[in-house]
Specification:
The protein has 130 residues and is mainly β. It has a single domain, classed as Hcp1-like (Pnp Oxidase, Chain A, Roll), CATH 2.30.110. It has one helix and eight strands.
């Protein structure tokens, strides 16, 4: 099987069903906490003990996305669900659902040569890839 090439121009990201206009990129990392199980009298591990799965990610959006700004500044933050639909042409290749997301922070940048860019960092309870 060859590489799965998806088109950023044809793919989309939605937050609670609202399309994120101006999406430039999305990246995420899924990490499982684990600890080595050490053997007595040997200099190597005999296994691992698995723990919590941690999902972190970043959205980069041209200009800004008001819904995320509103969520970030809430006194008691609400969670949101996010879906990334990765397409090859008009064909859906993969769907990634991020459940119970919370915003960690945002940064804003505007240069003389370009369009404003807002970077939103988030965590999620889980990422489901279909």
């Amino acid at each position: 099987m060859g590489p799965m090439i998806v088109s950023a121009a044809k793919s989309k990201v939605t937050i609670d069903g609202d399309i994120v206009d101006g999406i430039q990129s999305i990246d995420f990392k899924v990490r499982r906490r684990q600890a080595d199980v050490e053997s007595v009298g040997w200099g190597e591990r005999i296994g691992v003990e698995s723990g919590q799965v941690i999902v972190t990610g970043t959205l980069r959006v041209s200009s800004m996305f008001k819904k995320l700004d509103d969520l970030l500044y809430m006194e008691v933050p609400d969670s949101y669900n996010m879906v990334a639909e990765l397409n090859k042409g008009d064909e859906l290749v993969k769907k990634i659902t991020f459940d119970e997301c919370y915003l960690d922070d945002k940064s804003f940048e505007m240069t003389a040569n370009g369009v404003a860019l807002t970077v939103y960092n988030f965590t999620a309870t889980r990422a489901r890839e279909e």
